[in-house]
Design brief:
It is a single chain. The chain has about 260 residues and is of the alpha/beta class. The chain folds into two domains: about 170 residues, Rossmann fold (3-Layer(aba) Sandwich); about 80 residues, no CATH class. The chain contains seven helices and ten strands. It has a six-stranded mixed β-sheet, with helices on both faces. Strands 2-1-4-5 form a four-stranded antiparallel β-sheet, with no helix packed on it. β4 and β5 form a beta hairpin. The chain starts with a strand and ends with a helix.
């Protein structure tokens, strides 16, 4: 369970992005956060990831106050965040190597996880995401979809229970984007993940968010919350309900511009 209680946040010498924001996310839910550029979507993810701290208010995850990065929170970025000089295999191992050296709390307390276990986890995720044949390739030799799969594999190798995704598919072509959207729902079910994806794309929010939060231009005090229980179902893209949801979301965005 994620709970935001009266959370406010402002960058130094800027107007507030959030003012007294309240929000609850139950374990296993799939949320999409939708809004125009500059509305605070990425800032919200950084707050949830513990990379930013509220100006006031409290963020709790599993009844623990968020004071820094949490070991079981995974963050996937739009630009993949891959090391260009490392192979796909080495990029997937990166998070595990850092955790082994610094420990899950990042405070230089080495973990007791062994290398053989790491190798098994890396091999599993490369296989699961159809990357085994690309393991020795460098990012420049991979397509955009393959690079994003490497980023997903690197994150899931750390065994997260909360997956935060910052517009991860926005730069991909439509078929690849739809394929990875479907994969996201499959992985959520397989790994019992709570997922929160931020996007500016109405169609993506409708596909990936069983619940959708619409942010306005700052300061965000009262976001709009919409239920979308059919999201993720195999044929949802072809149902009238999907087009109705897209229309509904578009109308909310137009009203709040």
């Amino acid at each position: 369970m994620i709970v935001l209680e009266s959370v406010s946040f402002a960058y130094p010498e800027h107007d507030p992005v959030f003012v007294n924001l309240n929000w609850e996310v139950a374990r296993g839910e799939a949320w999409a956060v939708l809004g125009p550029s500059g509305c605070g979507k990425t800032t919200l993810l950084y707050l949830l990831a513990g990379l930013r701290h509220p100006t006031s208010g409290v963020i709790r995850i599993d009844d623990q106050e968020q004071t820094g990065p949490r070991p079981r929170t995974g963050l996937i970025l739009q630009d993949y965040g891959l090391l260009p000089w490392a192979t796909a295999y080495k990029n997937v191992t990166l998070g595990l190597q850092i955790r082994r050296f610094y420990g899950p709390d990042g405070k230089h307390t080495p973990s007791d996880e062994n290398t053989a276990d790491h190798d098994r986890r890396v091999d599993y995720w490369l296989h699961r995401l159809n990357l085994t044949s690309h393991a020795n390739k460098y990012p420049a030799q991979l397509s955009g979809g393959q690079r994003q799969r490497v980023a997903i594999a690197r994150t899931l190798a750390l065994n997260p229970d909360l997956l935060l995704m910052d517009e991860p598919f926005s730069s991909l072509d439509a078929p690849t984007r739809e394929s990875l959207q479907n994969l996201t729902f499959e992985l959520r079910a397989e790994e019992d993940l709570t997922t929160i994806i931020v996007t500016h794309a109405i169609e993506e929010a409708a596909i990936l968010g069983e619940k959708i939060m619409i942010l306005n231009q700052p300061p965000n005090c009262q976001p709009v919350f919409i239920k979308n229980p059919d999201a993720g179902q195999v044929d949802y893209r072809h149902r009238p309900a999907y087009y109705e949801m897209c229309t509904n979301l578009r109308q909310h965005l137009e009203v709040n511009q």
